[in-house]
Structures are given as C-alpha cells and as structure tokens.
Amino acid sequence: YLMQRPFLHIVLSAPEMFGFMKGQPARIRKIGYEPVIISSASEKLDECAKADAMKRLTVSILRPISLWHDAKTFYQLCQIFRQDSPQAVMLSGPKAIFLGSMAAWVCQIPRRIIIYHGMRQENLKGPLRWILDACVKISFAAASTALTVSPSLRELLISRKLCSADKIEAIRPGTPNGIDIDKYSPTPELLHATMALKDSLGI
C-alpha cells in the first residue's frame, strides 16, 4: 500500500499571503511532503486549497497584539501539531511566525522554517519596537532555519542581532516565490493577437 507522505504545515498570518505561494504545493509534494494550509477564515483560501487538493485548517490569527486571542491561537496550533505530527512547518507573516515557531518548538516538530518578508517594526520607536524585536528574536531562536526574500533583509536581521548568521539565508533578491516565466512566454496565439492589435492600431 502507499505510505502517507509526512505533513508539512504552512501557517500564514493572513490568507492573502497564499498568493506568494503559487506553485509551491506541487513542489512540496515533489520533495516528499503533504502540504496542509493553516490561516484565518477565507473563502478564497478555501477555494485555493481545494484547487491544490490541500487539507485546509482554519485558525483565527489576528494581526494586532491581543494577549487573550494570541494565547488561544497558540493553544490551537499546539493542538493541531500534536494531532497531525507534521515533520515540518513553514511560517510566514509576523504573528504566524511568532506563535507558530513557539508552538512547533514546544511540540518538537523537527523542521521549523521561517519565511521572512520584512520588518514590521523598522519604522517604529519606543516600547512597541522593543516588544516586536523581542518577538522576532524569540521566533528565530525557536526556528530551525529561516529564509529572507533578499540579502539586505538578512544582513539587517543579523546586524540588529535578531538572528544568528548561521541560521538565516536569503532566497533570491526581492522575491519569495520567483516568477512563472511560462506565463509571459510568447505563444503562437499571443503573437497572433499582438499582430492583430498592431494592425488595428496601424502600428
């Protein structure tokens, strides 16, 4: 019989962030994992998960700091991780990174991967910035590896002493998911339509 692939749980702070992950479910399966998507309620994300034949779990994740709600989210993530026993988690977005990394560490998930898009607190000052810096530092400490979308962001995190250099790598300059070049390939149909448009405009 076919063995079940080990789970890889993807936790997103906001459902809209799945737009950064187009094509990744197929690549995750190709390397031997079964992706599971976790985020707040969203009909669009439900449809995307269905289209990619992914298990979809709904956990409310608020962007603002809310001690009671965040504690509840942390508890729910721990429950899911203990029930599904994923071999890896992929975390994206500040709140998903903070709560998800700690929950995965508590549940002893072997691979805890942070995808870091940017520093929310970069333009803040005072206590809120200190709190967010502390959250980031705790998140990276709990993760097994981290990826940033650019070398400059990696260097900023290292210079601010928020993450050790040996734990964090840059994916590629300025992109978390690359570009689907096939989408822009000049197919015969597209070239024909282009020529027709040029003729109609007298170009």
Q: What key attributes describe this structure?
A:
203 residues, single chain, alpha/beta, 7 helices, seven-stranded parallel sheet, 7 strands
Can you offer a commentary on this structure?
This protein is α/β, with parallel strands linked by helices. It contains seven helices and seven strands. The chain has helices spanning 24-30, 43-51, 67-84, 94-106, 127-142, 151-159, 188-201; strands spanning 7-12, 34-39, 55-58, 88-92, 111-116, 145-148, 168-170. The chain has a seven-stranded parallel beta sheet with strand order 3-2-1-4-5-6-7, sandwiched between helices. Strand 6, helix 6 (151-159) and strand 7 form a beta-alpha-beta unit. Helix 3 packs across helix 4 (94-106). The radius of gyration is 20 Å and the shape is globular.
Describe the structure concisely for a colleague.
42% of the residues lie in helices and 17% in strands. The protein has 203 residues and is α/β, with parallel strands linked by helices.
Write the layout of secondary structure elements.
Layout: E1 7-12, H1 24-30, E2 34-39, H2 43-51, E3 55-58, H3 67-84, E4 88-92, H4 94-106, E5 111-116, H5 127-142, E6 145-148, H6 151-159, E7 168-170, H7 188-201
Parallel strand pairs: 1-2, 1-4, 2-3, 4-5, 5-6, 6-7
